[in-house]
């Protein structure tokens, strides 16, 4: 209860911020995207990672206000970078399943309009937990976002409920291979088989594929060999503050 009110106050008092983790092309090595990741700078406890407060925010519904803040803050930051002449790649924003209602497309459009951004400037990362509500609930919302030109990425792929039958009905432009399958590459045969199957399937479905949690050069080499498009992970860069990310983009020539 105490943490809930502290988090609410933290949101109101500007204690939340976004870090950005770059995604690199496995072909060129260039920065081709980034994921915005929430941080809470608590006045006493310092930087609190989202794993420690997002579950509570989800339970209490505070994630709706936090999610609205994240969307706006990411768009504000992108617009700010663009005004400075920075060529920032598309920024992926995580969405809680609870944000995924029929108002969402309109809300996203309003924030894009507010900051004068085209839909290709952002991506939305969703997780398989959305599917518990059933495809008839979520597919129309996904279709609306896709029609607006906002790309959807399915995060943590392979860990949740997703049935392959649903996958073909979803207008998903990107699959993110969960890091639990990346960690064992290239030594673990099972992880190799799973990674290969996911990449092959994504290619057939014409989805872009991002490997998460890439920490070693051996993992990178294996994923490149599979034809995976992008990597995200500590090997390339941890999540960094906005200014540090901007500097990486400037130096990425
Ligand atoms: O950065 P870290 O590994 O601690 O993130 C933990 C979890 O928090 C991840 O699953 C990530 O997707 C989630 N997360 C990070 N930022 C956001 C956000 O802005 N919104 C939502 N809903 N989840 C986020
Ligand atoms: O659930 P989601 O995929 O959004 O989680 C992203 C989280 O993974 C981020 O909070 C980030 O801190 C973490 N992360 C990013 N790269 C790596 C990595 O190379 N190794 C590990 N263990 N975690 C990572
Ligand atoms: Na994510
Ligand atoms: Mn993920």
From TrEMBL:
The residue stretches assigned to a coiled coil in this entry are none
**Membrane-spanning residues:** none
According to the entry, every stretch annotated as the EAL domain falls at: 1-253
Name of the protein described by the UniProt record: PAS domain S-box-containing protein/diguanylate cyclase (GGDEF)-like protein
Species assigned in the record: Noviherbaspirillum aridicola
State start and end of the fragment within the whole protein: 457 to 709 of 714
């Amino acid at each position: 209860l105490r943490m809930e009110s502290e988090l609410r106050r933290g949101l109101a008092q500007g204690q939340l911020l976004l870090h950005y983790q770059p995604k690199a092309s496995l072909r060129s090595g260039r920065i081709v995207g980034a994921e915005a990741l929430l941080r809470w700078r608590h006045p006493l406890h310092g930087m609190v990672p989202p794993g420690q407060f997002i579950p509570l925010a989800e339970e209490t519904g505070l994630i709706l206000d936090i999610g609205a803040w994240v969307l706006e803050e990411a768009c504000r930051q992108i617009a700010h970078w663009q005004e400075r002449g920075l060529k920032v790649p598309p920024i992926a924003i995580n969405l809680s399943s609870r944000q995924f209602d029929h108002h969402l497309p309109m809300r996203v459009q309003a924030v894009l309009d507010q900051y004068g951004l085209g839909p290709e400037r952002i991506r939305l990362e969703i997780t398989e937990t959305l599917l518990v509500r059933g495809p008839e609930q979520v597919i129309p919302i996904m279709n609306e976002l896709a029609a607006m030109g906002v790309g959807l990425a399915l995060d943590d792929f392979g860990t949740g409920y997703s049935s392959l039958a649903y996958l073909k009905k979803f207008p998903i432009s990107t699959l993110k291979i969960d890091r639990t399958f990346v960690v064992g590459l290239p030594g673990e045969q099972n992880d190799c088989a799973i990674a290969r199957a996911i990449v092959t399937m994504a290619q057939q479905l014409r989805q872009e594929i991002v490997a998460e949690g890439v920490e070693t050069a051996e993992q990178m080499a294996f994923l490149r060999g599979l034809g995976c498009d992008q990597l995200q992970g500590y090997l390339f860069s941890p999540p960094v503050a906005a200014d540090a990310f901007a500097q990486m983009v400037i130096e990425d020539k």
